[in-house]
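Q: Hi! First time doing this. I have a protein sequence and I read that you can turn it into a structure. Is that right? Here it is:
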Amino acid sequence: MRLFFENSSANSNDNTINSIQKDNISFPELSTTTDESQYLATRNLNSLANYNQYLKNQRVSYDTDKNVLTSQLNQVIHYQKESVANDLAQFMRNSENVIYGSEYVYAPELSTDTEVIFVQQLNLGQSKQMTGLIYDDKSQIRFQIKGNNITGYTQSYVNDLAQIGEKQATISQQSAIINLYSQKSISNNSKVNFF
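A: Yes, that's right. Below is the predicted 3D structure, encoded as structure tokens:
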């Protein structure tokens, strides 16, 4: 007697992806590649608290509970959507405008019509062997848009990042979507983005 087993995982994934699409949930092309990653930790989130005195031409406050610096610009920045990333990156390079501004990069996928968002770059280790972007609200600059002007920003920053534990396997984008859908964590008529 011979027994044949068919791997139904691929068929099951295809069926789930079809169900997701029927529920009008849109998403980019999904990778099936897995990777490895490590947990990161920081000891000091109050790193901006002592620097707000160096900022010029703005009213600055610091919330020690949330570790967020808030700035209201004395002179607004005229907003032009097509050049906002370059204009603000130039503004941020001046340490009298933004603390550690050169350590952030524009995140168009997070920005909206009312906010322009920059995320902090990750450079760990002496040889910068671990690099990337930190997509967390504890490491962002959020510029507020009112009309055609940028009126101020909030900033959070992480420093003294350390790698914790050994590298661990991560799941693929496709597995993440299927798991979230199976657990009813994605609503119908939604759009999913990956960063």
